[in-house]
Amino acid sequence: MTSHIKIVAVLTARTGKADALRHLLDGMIAPSRSEPGNLRYDLWTDQAEPDRFVLDELYEDADAVAAHRASPHFQTYLAAINDLAERSAFTLAPAAVA
């Protein structure tokens, strides 16, 4: 079985903060995708709720997740996200993955 780790984060913009949230999330895409150990970093928008975003991330292993969380761009995200959005994040291990 693989040691890949998936993170799914659901972020709903606070009132009047959708544009700022989108800007913050867009700024995470390129640097996150270029990290060693990052296999996927995709941003989705909820079709029914356009101020709700979903991050779909996949990493090779726990070390890659730790490196991502220690990165300057993630630290910038952490400093801003609570003012911009309500969020739920799930860190997942493979159970039955093809």
Give a written overview of the molecule.
With 98 residues, the protein is α+β, with helices and mostly antiparallel strands. It has a single domain, classed as Alpha-Beta Plaits, CATH 3.30.70. The chain has 3 helices and 4 strands; from the N terminus they run βαββααβ. It has helices at residues 18-33, 62-70, 72-84, and strands spanning 5-13, 38-45, 52-59, 85-92. The chain has a 4-stranded antiparallel β-sheet with strand order 2-3-1-4. β2 and β3 form a beta hairpin. α1 (18-33) packs antiparallel against α3 (72-84). The radius of gyration is 14 Å and the shape is globular. The termini are close together.
- Uncertain stretches of 5 or more adjacent residues: none
Largest sheet: spatial strand order: 2-3-1-4
Biggest β-sheet: count, sense, barrel?
Answer: 4 strands, antiparallel
How would you state the average pLDDT, rounded?
A: 96
Separate helix tally? 3
Which secondary-structure class do the elements indicate?
alpha+beta
What is the count of structural domains? 1
Secondary structure: number of strands: 4
- H/E series: EHEEHHE
